[in-house]
Each structure stands twice: as C-alpha cells, then as structure tokens.
Amino acid sequence: MDINNKRLLLTGACGGIGAEIAAVLADASASLILVGRNESKLRALQLSLNQPDSHHLIVADLSTPQGIETIHQTCQQWKREGTPIHGLINNAGSNCFASLSQREPASISNEIHLNLTVPVLLCQQALNWLSRPALILNIGSTFSAIGYPGYTTYCASKAGLQRFSEALHRELDGTGVQVLYLAPRATDTTLNSAAVTELNQQLGNQIDDPRWVAEQVMQCLIKETQVRWLGWPEKLWVRVNQIFPAPVASAIRKQSKTIRQYLIKAEVI
C-alpha cells in the first residue's frame, strides 16, 4: 500500500509503540485516526505529529462495549459523509508478568479481552466501513508462537490473534481487504515493569527500540507482508518451536530458576 494520504485508524495510539507508529506514519504523509482513552494525551500526540490538522481523534475505552461502539459509529458516519478509511492497525494491548496462580480472574479476563476479543470485534466492524482496497494489521508478539513462563494468558491471547489473523486473511481473499500480522519481540515501553526489564537484562534478551518497531510496522504496510516476526534469534525460535519444540523448551528450562526469582520479585512489587 502506498500510505501517502491514506487514512489509517490506530488503536493504542498513546502507548510506547503506538505513539512511535503514529509519528512514523505521519512523517510518511499518512492521515491518522488516533484512538485512545485519554483525550489530553491524544491531543498532545496529534499536535506533535507532522501536519497535525490532517489527523483525527476518537476518545474511546476499548475495554468497554461503549468504547468499541463509539469507534464503529464514528467510522460509519465518516463513510456516509464520503470520508474513506483505508486501514486499521490493532495495536492496543496489555500484558502482565505473573504466575498464573497469582493472577486475579478479572485481570486475566481483561487481558484476553483487550488482546484478542477487541481486535476481533474491531475487524468485524471495520469490514462495514473500510474502503477497498484496504489493510488490517494486527500487532501480535513472538509469544504468540513461543509459550513463555510468566506470560501464560498473554501467550494465549496473542496466539489466538495470530490464528484469527490467518483465518480472516484467507476468508477475505479476493474481497479487497488483506489481513496482516506483525509480531515484535521485547520492546522498551512502559508496559514492562521494573522486574521485567531487570529479567531481560539478566537473561541477555534483546530489547528493541519502539521507533524501530514502528518503522517495521510501516514497512509491513507498504510491502503488504502477511506475517512477519521481528528479532533474531526469536524469529528462528518461532520456526523451530513449530516443528521441533524440544530445543526451545530446553533453552527456557535453563532460564526457569531466574524466571521464578523475578516472578517472586514481581509479586512483591
């Protein structure tokens, strides 16, 4: 897709990756619809972008049915007014580094809802208001293909998003709407607690800069890459885990003592 002058809806716009995605796409002359819960943060982001007047805001809490409906009704109204929307980027998400036994049921439900149910519902609604041709890009995680201790429900929700994206891409074949899936690895954002940051450093895990991730998002849109995994050796481990998971399990087992130590530290914090 040539994103110049294309109108793209971005959820989670004020997050660490979201704000960088917005900046990168705005610099490439895309017109953005920025979605978030905090109006003041959204307006500050809008004013920081290239050509701020070309971008629009939707203040909506995606954790609520009302928030999702607000997006749908606003985009439907724009469609009736002849304002095209060329793409949807499902970027909003959350994670919680904790043992499953220590999680509150509401926390589990909220995480799965935001990471999986919300993008599914937005994709369903977007089929009513997206112009053709159009792109849907779902932002996932390498943990969608590698089950990792401390992130059981996050892995589950992102794995669901990956399979949903694959199935919807095939379902929409020939309709003018393509569904893409991009899976970053660990990224330096405020979603990471102090314990997670320290754990990654202890294990020697590479942590990507959100600006670089945002640039990969843009390339994914431009090249219309159906599935892309970010980071080495993570992208290799994804392939290995699909075919022969034993080496991946063995590598994680060697980390298990350290992971448990930081799970305990996260519980204390």
TrEMBL record:
CDD domains: SDR_c. Belongs to the short-chain dehydrogenases/reductases (SDR) family. InterPro entries: KR_dom, NAD(P)-bd_dom_sf, Sc_DH/Rdtase_CS, SDR_fam. Residues 6-189 form the Ketoreductase domain. Signal peptide: none annotated. The keyword Transmembrane does not apply. Keywords: Oxidoreductase. This is Short-chain dehydrogenase. PANTHER family: DEHYDROGENASE/REDUCTASE SDR FAMILY MEMBER 7B, DEHYDROGENASE_REDUCTASE SDR FAMILY MEMBER 7B. Pfam families: adh_short. GO terms for cellular component: membrane. One of its GO terms (molecular function) is oxidoreductase activity. NCBIfam families: PRK09072.1.
